[in-house]
Write a structure and sequence with these properties.
Blueprint: E1 5-13, H1 14-28, E2 31-32, E3 42-46, E4 54-59, E5 65-71, H2 75-84, E6 88-91, E7 96-99, E8 105-109, E9 120-121, E10 126-137, H3 138-152, E11 156-158, E12 164-167, E13 176-182, E14 190-197, H4 200-209, E15 213-217, E16 221-225, E17 232-235
Parallel strand pairs: 1-4, 5-8, 10-13, 14-17
Antiparallel strand pairs: 1-5, 2-3, 3-4, 6-7, 7-8, 9-10, 10-14, 11-12, 12-13, 15-16, 16-17
């Protein structure tokens, strides 16, 4: 039993919502659906091809972050399974809202999809938001790795550095899952989005024209601070395969 589809939500405080939504439209080159929800708090970033997998939400409590939706065939059965693995049910507003053992929000929803969008062409290079990285403080890291592997039913494998583990998601899924151990003694698990691109320098410049700035450089990735919303990374991974070029 595995998820049918993965969706990432950008959870945006009210004072960041409009600017962050506009920014991510620019980053992805996707359209925007009509708002929905009781207070028009939800919208979908709509790719030119393939099925959608990125959405935005205006939060009432002022929090900003990223969470995953797992599209499944039996929400109640999956919720029971998640609780058995250490998750906590937070609410049931028609779907099920939970927190992982380390405190990362996620949802169980219905209505899966099947066609992964192609990378967008940005005039000489391509890019795609294709990964959610789950950032976990040291004490919670091992349990988070075990939880997400057991919940999804997908294998856990070593990353390219000691602080990373990867969930081996099927190629048809729009999002990969990476787990990162933070150098923090305590705190709640959170998440961020990653882009893969064929030309990181060119992609960074494109994001800077949209209002983002470079926060720091890593080994094959660049941490970016957007004009509004949560930080994210641009990586050297191939946007078509998710692999790092030799």
């Amino acid at each position: 039993m595995s998820p049918l589809w993965l969706t990432a939500f950008l959870d945006l405080a009210a004072d960041e919502h409009a600017a962050a939504t506009s920014f991510w439209q620019g980053v992805t080159a996707y359209g925007l659906s009509k708002p929905r929800g009781d207070h028009d708090e939800f919208a979908t970033l709509v790719p030119a091809d393939g099925d959608d997998y990125l959405r935005v939400q205006r939060t009432d409590d002022g929090t900003t972050g990223v969470h995953l939706d797992l599209h499944v065939d039996d929400v109640d059965g999956w919720a029971e399974r998640a609780e058995h693995l250490g998750a906590t049910v937070v609410a049931r507003p028609g779907h099920v809202v939970l927190r992982s053992p380390g405190g990362l929000p996620f949802c169980l929803v219905t209505d899966g999809a099947e066609q992964r969008p192609a990378p967008a062409d940005h005039g000489g290079h391509t890019a795609l938001v294709d990964q959610v990285t789950i950032d976990s403080p040291g004490p919670a890291y091992a349990r988070e790795c075990a939880f997400w592997a057991a919940l999804t039913g997908w294998p856990l494998q070593d990353g390219r550095a000691s602080e990373f583990m990867r969930i081996q998601t099927p190629a048809a899924q729009p999002l990969r899952i990476l787990l990162q151990q933070l150098d923090e003694p305590a705190g709640r698990t959170r998440a961020h989005l990653d882009l893969a691109t064929t030309d990181r320098a060119a992609e960074i410049k494109r994001h800077e024209t949209l209002g983002a700035r470079v926060a720091s450089e890593g080994r094959g990735w660049t941490v970016m601070t957007p004009p509004a919303g949560p930080v994210y990374c641009i990586t050297d991974r191939d946007p078509a395969t998710g692999t790092v070029p030799a």
